[in-house]
Amino acid sequence: MLPSRLASGSAARRVMSAAARYHYNTLQAYEPPPWAKALRHQPAAYVELAQRPTPIHAWPLPAVPPGFQVWVKRDDMTGSTLSGNKIRKLEFLLADAMQQGCDSVVTCGGIQSNHSRATAVAARQLGLKPHLLLRWSGKIDVAAVGCNGNLLLDRFSAAKILLVPPINYDGSVVYGKEMKGLKQKMEDYGEKLKAEGSTPYLIPVGGSNSVGTWGYIEAFREMMEQGVLENFDDIVLATGSGGTLGGIVIGNYLTGSKVKIHGVCVCDDAAYFYNHIDVQLREYSLTQDSEGKPLRAKDTTDIIDGYKGRGYGISTDEELAQLTDIFTKTGISVDPVYNLKAIRGMLSELQGNPGRFAGKRILYIHTGGIYGLYDGRVDKMLKENPETNQVYSYNDVIPS
Length: 400
Prior knowledge:
Layout: H1 9-20, E1 27-29, E2 45-47, E3 56-58, E4 69-74, H2 86-99, E5 104-110, H3 114-125, E6 129-135, H4 150-156, E7 160-164, E8 172-174, E9 177-179, H5 182-195, E10 200-202, H6 214-225, H7 228-231, E11 234-239, H8 243-254, E12 260-265, H9 270-283, H10 297-300, E13 302-304, H11 317-330, H12 339-352, E14 361-366, H13 379-384, H14 394-397
Parallel strand pairs: 4-14, 5-6, 5-10, 6-7, 11-12, 11-14, 12-13
Antiparallel strand pairs: 1-2, 3-4, 8-9
């Protein structure tokens, strides 16, 4: 808050000029990059939520093969409770909600969804009521829902949480019967809120649609300003809902960049994400290349599959041990659901299939997810590992 007593004359003008720059949490007119001005679905505004630009620096990851250099773009540093890649998408999605006069937002995800947490926190900052549909494995038991990890911030945000079975987003067919997916359940709930007098804004899983994707089209401009196109051969990132990858792919294609983009699946499979990128390209009317040939996802990105482990959100002891090793040796935390699995995939491919990469200079985009470390899954291992269980009584070390 600015001081209540303002100086007169030129000093007052300087203070007012400074005040004009304090526009966090407010709608701002959006000017797309010159190379993206022909795209469809141009947003008119965004709301500033992320701390930008996020830094890029060398990352001495264990097990990187000789000759390769790995650097990291720290999108885990886009904020505190708003940290991670999702907040870049929410800058455009929540601006759209505000422009439409909505009073609430509805979104969905897993029980420890980073996206849902970021949506709930950002919604409260903007005066909107958050509603979250979260997948719960097993018999639904509201009393069993804890206050750890992302759920802690969901609760602090006073989000209304509705537990749903672990269903697909778009639905499925079981024994010949069509089952509603998360998308349909969100739409049904949105209609209920409207009937009660609310004006909800529905945000898809991961914030990945033609509005949210602009978050990473804009992030690509930021990376260009940081010299990424001149200094790196490959960009690698985790992909779970496809919006972050889609924005990077579109920016890379439109600028004529020679950097190769790799998305490592943490759920679904390569076929799913190639289809998802194809849909995004069509949404933005990117259907032909410069020679008039059909533009396909496989021409713009490389989907790395086979590193989901036991499944989405499920961690093995080996994975948690590697997560710990990365943190203790580099000081950078990686979450167990997204980034750890993407890093495992990247390192495995660098070691066993180096020809998959365009060069030796690799930029990894860290998409955040730190609150996923606080759900309790690593506690037992940290206490059993001598390196991470160095807790002593002072009097046992320095006898009095």
